[in-house]
Oxidoreductase
Amino acid sequence: MADMTKTALLGGKNASCWAATAKQRCYSSLAGSSRAEIVIIGAGIVGLTTALRLCEAGRSVILLEALRVGCQVTGRSTAKITTQHGLIYDNLIRDMGPAAAQSYADANRAGVDQILDWTIAHRIECDLEIKPAYAYTTDVARRGELTAEANAARQVGLDAEVVERAPLPFETAGALRFPDQAQFNPIQYSVGLARAVEALGGRVFEMSRVVSIDEGSRWRVSTDNGIVDAENVVVATNMTIKSPVGMANRTQPRSHTAIAFRLDDPTPFDGFFLGIDEPTRSIRTARDDKGPLLLVLGPKFNTGQEADVAGRFVELEAWARANLPVGDVAWRWCNEDYDTPDRVPYAGEPDPDKSPGFHIATGFNAWGISNGTAVGKLIAGRILRQPCPWEELYDPARPYDKTFHVNGSSRSIVASFDEIGPGEGGVVVSGKQKIAAWRDGSGKLHAVSAVCTHKGCTVSWNNADRTWDCSCHGSIFAADGSLIHGPARKPLHPVDL
Ligand SMILES: Cc1cc2nc3c(=O)[nH]c(=O)nc-3n(C[C@H](O)[C@H](O)[C@H](O)COP(=O)(O)OP(=O)(O)OC[C@H]3O[C@@H](n4cnc5c(N)ncnc54)[C@H](O)[C@@H]3O)c2cc1C
Ligand code: FES
């Protein structure tokens, strides 16, 4: 059982720092029957990019979002807009060959350029800042890896150099520097894209969770209150909620802790930073309505397979206080994305013969701002019959390492409800029933089924975000069982105690 005192000790608001400054426009939810050429499920960076490309080409588009525009994985990311993805090009050249590495660089550079172009073309105010990206090490023995990566990056046409140290307030043993990268507020950007989609005739619906995708005249997509028929369906739900080629075993969900601290003076942080040593850290400046922030990210862990997420926040805060000039904790949250065995996302039409017009995108390895924009362009291009040079790279049906995905088991099993203290959660197994229960501050117990509605794995309690996280494919449910993140499409079932 996790240390129950830790949750109470965590400071700051439990939410992403980006929402505070983003002026959301509320869209209505889908009702009745509608028709469009393309229905896109999910208004994160992938769905919005695809939608805007298609609307710019004059196509009729309906965009269905389960919650709010841009507020899920995109709106909880560190939102670095960069072709520097840790150390990747040297690996890609060795594992997949120079052509694949070139494709990856080209796609991501096109993704970065598209974001910069749209912020100007659609006048999107999203705190966009041009900054250098640094991947740093504190271990002198790893400098060679930085040099190899700089050489590989230059081989695929990217501007890269190794510098003696990263401009950070603690000692580093070298850093890989990519000039002229960027960072922004991802929710403001998403809101801007949605407005542009709407201005070009696209129809956007929020609070419209898709519960089924069936074959109709072509594709029929249903929410609880509405139906859309379309020639093409784009499943841009971060993890696919349905796919003709299953994605669950080709990916591994990974989560991170994120803390945004108050910062007196952001000017010394001339760049954004990623540590390549274990435990990895990511650092960037940000701002909310009260002023500058320093956003710090902790190392990844498998979603639902960590018994004490709050403990990870405590460690991250201690590290930040020891190494960075941070003030109070303003915001803190978890975010997840999906890894792939070869570090390249899956995007496109998985089975064009049997399921023509069914498109997916997933597995961004936590680099989906640039990759997600690139694959939005790719999918839109496929629908518009404009072939894209990166289709082979992102092929969602390519062979994969079958040992990569590892299911977990619940890390929150307790013998009885009595073991669950105020603010905590646990899973009680009683005969065939598995009950996920949490106790509120007044001591009242709330219970739902612990059986994930995706494929039946048992959920774990996230004692920091107070969510039920599935240890198999990363579905996340609120404490009351309502669905936050798929692949599940339904909430946890209610249980009477
Ligand atoms: C901690 C962390 C930091 C990151 N930082 C960076 C970074 O600095 N730079 C970078 O390039 N990448 C970063 N990433 C990765 C990047 O944020 C993601 O890969 C990218 O945002 C994914 O976009 P998406 O559109 O697939 O997902 P989302 O933004 O989650 O969009 C999917 C949308 O689909 C909706 N949805 C889900 N199910 C349904 C349904 N059934 N019906 C209707 N709608 C549905 C969701 O509500 C959601 O809004 C980071 C990831 C993590 C975890
Ligand atoms: S997410 Fe697949 S079983 Fe829970």
